[in-house]
């Protein structure tokens, strides 16, 4: 049977070095910790556990980085959807400020890991620009820049002309620059995390779907599709946008929206110098945001929402190709040679969620479109929690699993919202 259209190679799959060997699990055994999911969170958790002398085993249904971790835009953006003052209002002064500092450190985690483990990952840390397309957006970015500057972040508010110069488009009224952000090749980074975890003593098995979890006393049994089983006292689930029915109700706590991306063919030197000339990455203040950057091969990437369903033909990316021409008229007629998508787990409150529904089972879900830094740092926090038992190691409180009411209708709702935003959200669609 032919490979389905959605799995056509992404830009990252065609430009990343080969991943490490992660053979399927074929024999039953024991592990200190079993981690389900070989994305950023699972791999970071495995690496940080192994560095503490705890033996983790990662079980991945496909291959390392197959899901959203290897299919995102490669933008490393610190913070959360909430600004620091909002987090303090929501969680109180102590926990709110601690969460803000955690969120603000997430980009540091990524670039520190790349450097510390000498990963073969194309990367650049020139900052992130958030462009504002309305007057309300201008007020929003000014407030955001001021709050993060108050926590020591290198931020700068940009006027219209500076925004146009740095982005290469005149479509925005202004913006702000956060110097902590940057760009990576995300699949290379996932594979780099896997190599580092293996070197530290973790075991990783690809092509090993987990089909069952059961608990007897303090021991969990993790069953795989091949029939091999692992016994452990600790299980960590971090499957995010690719969460299935392994644990009751979990998949119904998120909307696993598809994030679509296109990439041009490599641009000429003149065109490259006219777009993001100082190497920043960018996403904007639209409700249905656009995000774009240049990659290490000189291609322009444009990302945004598309159909909730899996794509069927290249026409499902046509809206992004049109947007490229509208944002950057100098690229009119430029050809595109990569189209791909990946699922992003979005919670109702736009925060990551941590659950411990049974002793020895920890669940992390909800990357909110900022998973590169967020989930890398979450993995470190989860490892500390497992090693010490101290719940204060976690950036967020443990909460009960709460499925969204009428979850089956949310796909229709999200599809309708996407259609509405395209009509009303700044006139560029």
What labels would you give this structure?
globular; 12 helices; six-stranded mixed sheet; eight-stranded mixed sheet; 429 residues; alpha/beta; 24% strand; FAD/NAD(P)-binding domain; 21 strands
Helix content estimate: 25-40%
- What's the number of domains? 1
Radius of gyration: 21 Å
Total helices: the number is 12
- Strand order across the largest sheet: 7-8-6-16-17-18-15-19
Oligomer: single chain
Count of extended strands: 21
Q: Could you report the average pLDDT, rounded to the nearest whole number?
A: 93
Low-confidence residue ranges: 1-6
Could you give the distance between the termini? 36 Å
Shape, please? globular
Pfam families: DAO
Organism: Methylobacterium brachiatum
InterPro entries: FAD-dep_OxRdtase (IPR006076), FAD/NAD-bd_sf (IPR036188)
Domain FAD dependent oxidoreductase: 32-384
Helix-strand blueprint:
Layout: H1 11-15, E1 29-30, E2 33-36, H2 40-51, E3 56-59, E4 75-76, H3 84-91, H4 93-104, H5 106-116, E5 123-124, E6 128-132, H6 135-150, E7 155-158, H7 160-167, E8 174-178, E9 182-184, H8 186-200, E10 203-205, E11 210-216, E12 219-224, E13 229-232, E14 235-237, E15 254-264, H9 269-274, E16 281-284, E17 291-294, E18 300-305, H10 318-327, E19 336-347, E20 353-358, E21 361-365, H11 371-388, H12 410-424
Parallel strand pairs: 1-13, 2-3, 2-14, 3-10, 6-16, 14-21
Antiparallel strand pairs: 4-9, 5-9, 6-8, 7-8, 11-12, 12-13, 15-18, 15-19, 16-17, 17-18, 20-21
């Amino acid at each position: 049977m032919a490979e389905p259209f959605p799995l056509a190679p992404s830009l990252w799959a065609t430009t990343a070095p080969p991943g490490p060997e992660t053979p399927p699990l074929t024999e039953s055994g024991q592990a200190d910790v079993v981690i389900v999911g070989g994305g950023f969170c699972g791999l970071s958790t495995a690496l940080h556990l192994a560095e503490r002398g705890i033996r983790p085993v990662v079980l991945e249904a496909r291959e390392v980085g197959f899901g959203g971790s290897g299919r995102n835009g490669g933008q490393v953006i610190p913070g959360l959807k909430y600004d620091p003052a909002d987090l303090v209002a929501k969680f109180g002064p102590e926990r709110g400020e601690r969460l803000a500092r955690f969120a603000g450190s997430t980009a540091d985690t990524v670039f520190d890991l790349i450097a510390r483990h000498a990963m073969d990952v194309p990367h650049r840390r020139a900052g992130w620009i958030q462009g504002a397309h309305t007057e309300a957006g201008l007020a929003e970015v000014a407030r955001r820049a001021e709050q993060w500057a108050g926590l020591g972040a290198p931020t700068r508010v940009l006027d219209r002309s500076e925004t146009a110069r740095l982005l290469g488009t005149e479509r925005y009224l202004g913006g702000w620059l956060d110097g902590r952000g940057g760009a990576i090749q995300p699949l290379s980074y996932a594979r780099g995390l896997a190599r580092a975890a293996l070197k530290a003593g973790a075991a990783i098995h690809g092509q090993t779907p987990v089909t069952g979890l059961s608990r007897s006393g303090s021991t969990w049994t993790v069953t795989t599709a091949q029939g091999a089983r692992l016994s452990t006292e600790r299980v960590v689930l971090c499957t995010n946008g690719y969460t299935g029915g392994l644990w009751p109700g979990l998949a119904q706590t998120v909307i696993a929206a598809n994030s679509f991306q296109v990439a041009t063919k490599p641009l000429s030197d003149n065109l490259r110098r006219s777009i993001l000339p100082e190497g920043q990455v960018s996403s904007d203040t639209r409700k249905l945001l656009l995000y774009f950057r240049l990659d290490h091969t000189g291609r322009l990437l444009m990302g945004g929402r598309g159909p909730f369903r899996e794509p069927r033909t290249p026409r499902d990316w046509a809206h992004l190709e049109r947007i490229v021409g509208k944002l950057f008229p100098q690229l009119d007629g430029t050809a595109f040679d990569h189209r791909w998508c990946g699922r992003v787990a979005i919670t109702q409150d736009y925060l990551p969620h941590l659950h411990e529904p049974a002793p020895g089972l920890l669940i992390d879900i909800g990357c909110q479109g900022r998973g590169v830094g967020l989930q890398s740092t979450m993995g470190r926090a989860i490892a500390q929690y497992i090693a010490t038992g101290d719940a204060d190691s976690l950036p967020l409180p443990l909460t009960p699993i709460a499925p969204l009411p009428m979850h089956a209708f949310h796909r229709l709702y999200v599809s309708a919202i996407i259609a509405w935003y395209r009509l009303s959200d700044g006139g560029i669609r």
